[in-house]
Amino acid sequence: MRNENLSENYVRKPGTEFHSVEAAEPDSKKSIPCAEVRTRLLRKFMEDAPFQPATNLWRAIELPVLAEAMPKAGRGLDVGCGDGILTRILSDLANANWQLVGVDPDGAECALARDSGMFAAVHESGADRIAEPDGSFDFAFANSVLEHIPDLPPCLAEVGRCLKRGGLFFATVPSPGLHRSMTGPGWTRRISRAEYLAESDRRLLHFRYPSVDDWSLLLNDAGFDLDSARGYLTARQVRRWERWTNATGGLLYRLKGSQSRPIEIQRSLGLRRSLPKPLRMLGGPLAWLAGSGVLQDDSADPEATACLLVVGRKR
Fold this sequence. Notes:
Elements: H1 35-48, H2 53-69, E1 73-79, H3 85-94, E2 97-104, H4 107-115, E3 119-124, E4 137-143, H5 152-162, E5 163-174, H6 177-181, H7 193-204, H8 212-221, E6 224-232, H9 235-247, H10 249-255, H11 262-269, H12 283-291, E7 307-314
Parallel strand pairs: 1-2, 1-4, 2-3, 4-5
Antiparallel strand pairs: 5-7, 6-7
């Protein structure tokens, strides 16, 4: 369900370290994830998925925020698990010992997830019909997934059904700040800002941008209380992502007639591959080009950022 995924060949090799968020904090004090963790992630992402630099930048900022908030152990439900690659990286960052079940509507992604070794089970289905018993999970999470679901309330209710009372649901999602932070079409595109943003949403398959107050209502209707909400992805980071996504995925999307999903374009062009071993040294320079000057930016203010980490607690 994640519309732009990392290489399907990701395996954590001996000597490859992502360093948990805790490990990056010598005094074990919880804080906003540091630039060093993001830089390590971005370099690895560029080695494994060099053809999607914009997504790599976004994920390098997003994943440490999610990892810092999540529990270290328990039975968890990965909503929109994709191929399992990001879940493995998330688990490494959180230094977690999870027992996971994945759910995703894409059969090809589910097959890769089953082969990843991350999941006890993977269900090929939408999040509105999860083949698991009531109250069978300690926690659930959806990493950049909920914005892609056209009819969200039934999915939130179904996740709530699967959680134990008091269980937490973690979701990373774009907020209204994404549109506010984007630069716009520029002089090369003869379209209005409104048309540009609408085209971007169609390409990214973004159906909504709820505010914190909107999430409180959505979660309440599904049987959750809003436990917390924090922001991430600053305006400068959004604009750097925007330049890269327009030059890569955005350009391919228009060349393909503005019809195909990003993951379909990647598959058709054979772009879901890591760099050959002799070229993996290019991961560092690519990471520098994408992230230089913005990886150190930090803000947790929901009003000053473009994304939210929303945490709901099952009543």
